[in-house]
Sequence to fold (143 residues):
Amino acid sequence: MAGRQGKLLVVTGVTRGLGRALIEQCSQTDELKTCRLFGCGRNEDRVRELNEKYGPRYEFTALSTCDFDAVMRWAEGVVKECGGRGPHLLINNAGLTNETAPLWEVSREEFQRVVDTNIHGYYNVIKVLKTHTHTHTQTHTHR
Fold:
């Protein structure tokens, strides 16, 4: 992972689960400590905790990836903060699962939240951030 200095990483779904674990690991990996990392998650309290814990190299924002306009504003802020550069690596991790139950027992509202986050939210992030990547930069999108 040498050569990561100055790289821009974007991670969605940072407030819990795999996204939170990724942030912890990045902060402890020497090669990634020099990266500029931007993350987002829905839980405002957890986002505040992350900002307090990691300081200025890592910047976290509370938002729902289902909200296209919020994702657009966030992405524009990330790009502006980084001098017009888009991310080198996007880990589009935000996602939800329904309570463990047969599909026919899952409420329509719960199922809609899962679809909105896992499909629309995923699309919103890629749609917005992919337009800001440089053609000379190899950008990987992981899900």
